[in-house]
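ok so for the tutorial part 2 we go from a plain amino acid sequence to predicted C-alpha cells. step 1 is just haveing the sequence, like this:
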Amino acid sequence: MNQKSDSVLVDLARRGDIDAFEQLIARYESRVFTIAYRYTGNYADASDLAQEAFIRVYRSISSFRGDSSLLTWLTRVVTNVCKDELRRRAKQKIVSIEEMAEKGQVSEAEPRQKPLEEEVLAKEWQEEVQQILGSLTHEHRVVIVMRDVQGYSYEEIAGFLECSLGTVKSRLNRARQILKNKLLTRNELLIGQVGHGH
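step 2 — the prediction. this is what the C-alpha cells look like for a chain of 198 residues:
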C-alpha cells in the first residue's frame, strides 16, 4: 500500500477528510508529544498539550500554505501551545519550586558506599535541572529547550518564535547564564544543608 505524501493528506484534510487528518496525526504524534514533553517534563501534561496542538492544527489546517514543511509548521504550533501553557503556569511553577527549596526536600546525609549512588545522583541531577528549567521565564525556557535540548539552529528558532536572530542569541545567552547561576546556587544550598546535618 502506497503511503500518501504530507501534501496530499493536507489537501484531503482541508476538504474535511477526517481519515486523512488521522493519518497525519499518526505520522507525527510521537514528534509532537516529544516536543511537548521537553517543555513540561511530565507525561500527562505533554499528552494534553499534544492533543491541544492537534486540535489547533485541525482548526487551522486551511491556513497551511506549504511555505515550510509540515513538521516545521507542527513544531511551531506545539511550541506556541506549550508557550501559552508555560505562561499561564509561570508564577505557580516558581512558587512551587521556592516552596520545595524552603522545605529542604533533600535526603539526610548518608554513608557514601551505596552501589547505586551514582545512578541516584544522576537521576536527582536531572530532576534538579528540570525544576530549575521550570523556574525560568517562558522566553528563556523556550530558547534553551529548542537550542540545547531539541538542537534547532538559531535560524530555525528565530523562525518559530518570529523574532530576530540577535534576539534569539541574547535570550539564549541570558537563559544559559541564569540556568548556570541557579544550578550553582542550588548546589551550594544543598551542600550547606547536608553539611549542617552532621
